[in-house]
Design goal:
Chain lengths: 365, 296
């Protein structure tokens, strides 16, 4: 059981910077999911924690001990790889016990731990098999078993589910979550899949171009995204962004070529005419509003309908409506002000209402 | 699909059947011709070794086995020929076996270790080392034979196993082969081993060596045959019967037409054929097994 602290970790490959000073503090037993598009540096961060890469600057602290200069084996962590990285010539038992054998754990103890982990993962009947005789899901379990038997301070998962088919992925996702709860081991989980991130993480780190755009619980990230990147990344279909300007007194926003929307939660700071980006999730539009939308694609999904269309300004809008598709022709839509997200038009950062009616925004790490 | 057109256009199934049968006959004919071309000399040697010296001496080329096999083979095994070299084939076989095995094992051992260094570690001058090894591919034994002979003779290694084997033991080909194979081992496997706490030596012993078993088996076959067939270098470096190899021995048995015991030469040749054939057959089973079982 351990805590993990990442302090101002930055990394450059030659002259190319990939991480710009990441700070992260993980509580004992917490499951942190690092999520972001490819190339955002999430795997690099994980590999730095693992000790497979050296940070250019910054420190990694596990349970109060600085491990920045230690080899991976000396950090007492276990990692599950995307392609499982099982030793092809070893049986399941040998694969799981290899780390323990190297550490000189006595044989009866190895047998006990492997049996226990195999029981937990439903691998008891497969211990004599070779990896190639296993299905993808079973290999994934062996890779997790290899991590579990080590009883490490920290689990690291590097996109462990992306090689599985969709159905198995959902099942393994639940299994990982259950297992992590049960073992209570502090974990870092890297993924590019927002559903995995939302369902698995106690907290998420949304990474964008080598920076942590936001660190918060899944629901907070969904409800109060820190900037337009996070807002667009989390949620499916993605949030709509409308350019707008601030009205007099900061009480509302004028949508480009369109009507004024009054803020429901209070005024935003700034001069009238300040450039804004309004964020509206597809499910947060109301039918029968002042914006005329010409649909060009309607996707009926049964319980709901996704409508893609354009406003007269050429702005693309995606809409999620409950129930059956609406009729043909232009539909009038409106924005429900209580679900409006307001971002600065230039920096993309979230703008909160001025009088602190809601709790102050958490500082993004 | 252009190639599908003739099949569809074929008017008569019987005609195309006949054409296919004719094509089968032609291919089989060519195959049989090839087999005869390759097998006939070997058969002649095998048959020749079972006749007495007089039969072949008369200029006959028998196609069917004679009745002197046992005595001829026993004679060459213990005494070789009676006219020239007079070295027992058993001695020459032993020398050849020692040379071929040590060259093979030495080549595999040295090249797998150097390939491991070049493929998995980054150290100053790594690419220089790699290119240095690569360039020696262009310098076979024949090219450097005089300087090599000079060195070996200055070291007083003429007529020794050491002198016979050591100059042939480095192998750029095998090193490159292993390096290419090592590059296909996924990085994540290396990293998983690191996380498990395996150091470089441990990783080499526990992961790299077992995974290389098939490559080693394949190389063993190729290199053993290479070592067994060495001619030029042993010819230079061996002058005494103690270290004479069988390939040299066969050549020394052959002299002027009337002065050569052809039946014995042929018996020796047959014996010389056996070890490489045995190695190929034996290792082939390993090789195939490894191919089927290994997966990266």
């Amino acid at each position: 059981m351990a805590t993990l602290t990442v302090e101002r970790v930055s990394k450059s490959f030659g002259k190319v910077p990939v991480l710009h000073g990441i700070d992260l503090s993980v509580a004992d037993g917490e499951m942190i999911v690092i999520v972001g598009a490819s190339g955002c540096g999430k795997s690099t961060l994980l590999r730095i924690v693992a000790g497979l890469e050296r940070a250019t600057e910054g420190r990694i602290v596990i349970s109060g001990a600085d491990v920045t200069r230690l080899e991976p084996a000396e950090r007492d962590i276990a990692m599950v790889f995307q392609n499982y990285a099982l030793y092809p010539h070893m049986s399941v038992f040998e694969n799981m016990s290899y780390g323990l054998r190297i550490r000189g754990v006595p044989k009866p103890e190895i047998a006990r731990r492997v049996a226990q982990a195999a029981e937990m993962l439903g691998l008891s009947g497969l211990l004599e098999r070779r990896p190639r005789e296993l299905s993808g899901g079973q290999r994934q379990r062996v890779a997790m078993g290899r991590a579990i038997v080590r009883e490490p301070k920290l689990f690291l998962f590097d996109e462990p589910l992306s090689n599985l088919d969709a159905k198995l992925r959902v099942a393994m996702r639940a299994e990982i979550k259950r297992l992590q709860r049960r073992l209570g081991v502090t974990s870092l989980f890297v993924t590019h899949d927002q559903v995995e991130a939302m369902t698995l993480g106690d907290r998420l780190v949304v990474m964008n171009q080598g920076r942590a755009a936001q660190v918060a619980t899944p629901m907070e990230i969904f409800a109060r995204p820190a900037d337009t990147y996070v807002a667009g990344f989390i949620g499916s279909p993605a949030m709509n962004f409308l350019p707008a300007t601030l009205t007099e007194g900061g009480l509302g926003a004028r949508i480009a070529d369109g009507p004024v929307v009054r803020f429901a939660d209070g005024p935003r700071p700034g001069m009238a005419g300040r450039s804004l980006t309004l964020g509206v999730r597809p499910e947060h539009f109301a039918l029968g509003g002042p914006l005329p939308l010409s649909p060009d694609l309607v996707e009926p999904l049964g319980s709901e309908t996704v409508v893609h269309g354009r406003l007269p300004s050429g702005q693309e809008i995606t809409l999620r409506l409950p129930g059956a598709p609406p009729g043909h022709g232009t539909i009038g839509i409106g924005i429900r002000p209580e679900h409006l997200h307001v971002f600065d038009g230039k920096t993309g950062l979230r703008l909160e209402a001025e009088p602190a009616i809601q709790p102050p925004p958490r500082v993004a790490a | 699909m252009p190639q599908a057109v003739p099949a569809i256009a074929a008017p008569d199934p019987a005609a195309s059947e006949a054409r296919r049968a004719r094509a089968d006959w032609i291919t089989h004919g060519i195959l049989v011709l090839g087999v005869v071309l390759f097998a006939l000399p070997v058969w002649l040697v095998l048959v020749g070794s079972t006749h007495d010296a007089a039969t072949i001496g008369r200029g006959e080329v028998p196609l069917l086995p004679g009745g002197h096999a046992a005595e001829t083979y026993a004679a060459v095994w213990t005494q070789g020929d009676t006219r020239r070299a007079q070295v027992a084939v058993s001695t020459m076989m032993f020398n050849s076996a020692v040379m071929a095995l040590l060259i093979t094992i030495g080549k595999i051992a040295i090249s797998i270790v150097s390939a491991y260094a070049v493929a998995f570690f980054s150290f100053p001058g790594r690419m220089l080392c790699f290119w240095a090894i690569f360039v020696t591919l262009m310098l076979p034994v024949e090219v450097r034979i005089f300087p090599t002979f000079q060195v070996v003779s200055d070291l007083g290694l003429v007529n020794t196993y050491t002198g016979l084997i050591v100059p042939l033991i480095a192998s750029a080909t095998a090193t490159l082969l292993f390096r290419q194979f090592f590059l296909t081992i996924p990085d994540e496997l290396v990293e998983a081993a690191k996380m498990d706490g395996a150091g470089p030596m441990r990783f080499f012993k526990d992961v790299v060596l077992p995974l290389s078993a098939t490559n080693m088996a394949a190389l063993f076959v190729i290199l053993f045959v290479y070592g067994w067939n060495q001619y030029l270098w042993p010819l230079l470096i061996t002058t005494s019967a103690d270290v004479e190899t069988i390939v040299i021995g066969i050549v020394k048995m052959i002299g002027a037409e009337a002065d050569t015991e052809w039946n014995r030469v042929m018996a020796t040749t047959v014996l010389a054929l056996l070890p490489p054939v045995a190695v190929v057959i034996l290792m082939q089973r390993w090789f195939v097994k490894g191919l089927v079982e290994t997966e990266k």
